[in-house]
């Protein structure tokens, strides 16, 4: 992530801010800067993915997930992402990214990142899945959620997320030359 100044501003903005329930979305505000542009004068498509990283950090800060990560010395891992571009963002244009948790399974949190310009028009929508690791194992998502909001349950994972995960598995099988993924049980470290 090469957006350290934006990350610092996000951290400063949220250091003493109001904490939200994990099911509430977080809204991050940005402006298109000269180093965000590609040769055609609009925000580079790769920059959207980096902005999603920063917006995810703001969501983690606002929902106290960042505190649980720090306390337990977990490492956040991005397991995949997909984005759909609708409109361009130009130099100095204001925009915001709304990050919201769609649900989780035993290993992954599924998040949506919706980019909107200053008029409220959707310019891009991305979906990511993120997990956490301890020193040697995956951290079960229930342990993460219970450290922030004890007893919370995942909402039903939307159908389009299941479709996306199936597509990713098919792409991996095709790209790796394997017809079938070898089953590999995930190892989880339960927090006491």
Please explain how this structure is put together.
- It contains 5 helices and 7 strands; from the N terminus they run αβααβββββααβ.
- With 192 residues, the chain is an alpha+beta fold.
- The chain has one domain (4-189): Thiol Ester Dehydrase, Chain A, CATH 3.10.129.
- Strands 1-3-4-5-2 form a 5-stranded antiparallel beta sheet, with helices on both faces. Strands 6-7 form a two-stranded parallel ribbon.
- The model has no long low-confidence stretch (mean pLDDT 90).
User: Into which percent range does the helicity of residues fall?
Assistant: 25-40%
CATH class: Alpha Beta
In CATH terms, the superfamily is: Hotdog Thioesterase
Q: Radius of gyration in whole Å, from Cα?
A: 17 Å
Strand order of the largest sheet: 1-3-4-5-2
**Beta-strand content bin:** 25-35%
What is the 3D shape? globular
* SS-based class: alpha+beta
Characterize the main sheet.
5 strands, antiparallel
H and E string: HEHHEEEEEHHE
Number of strands: 7
Second rung of CATH, namely the architecture: Roll
Number of domains: 1
């Amino acid at each position: 992530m090469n957006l350290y100044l934006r990350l610092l501003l996000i951290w400063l903005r949220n250091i003493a801010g109001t904490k939200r329930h994990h099911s509430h979305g977080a809204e991050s505000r940005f402006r298109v800067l000269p180093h965000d542009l590609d040769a055609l004068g609009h925000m580079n498509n790769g920059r959207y993915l980096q902005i999603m990283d920063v917006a995810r950090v703001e969501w983690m800060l606002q929902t106290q997930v960042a505190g649980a990560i720090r306390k337990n010395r977990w490492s956040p891992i991005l397991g995949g992402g997909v984005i759909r571009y609708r409109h361009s963002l130009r130099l100095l244009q204001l925009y915001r990214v709304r990050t919201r948790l769609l649900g989780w399974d035993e290993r992954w949190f599924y998040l949506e990142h919706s980019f909107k310009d200053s008029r409220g028009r959707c310019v891009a929508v991305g979906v990511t899945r993120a997990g956490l690791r301890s020193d040697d194992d995956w951290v079960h998502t229930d342990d993460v959620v219970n450290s922030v909001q004890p007893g919370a349950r995942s909402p039903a994972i939307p159908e389009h997320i299941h479709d996306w995960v199936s597509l990713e598995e098919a792409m991996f099988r095709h790209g790796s030359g394997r017809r079938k993924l070898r089953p590999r049980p995930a190892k989880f470290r339960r927090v006491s």
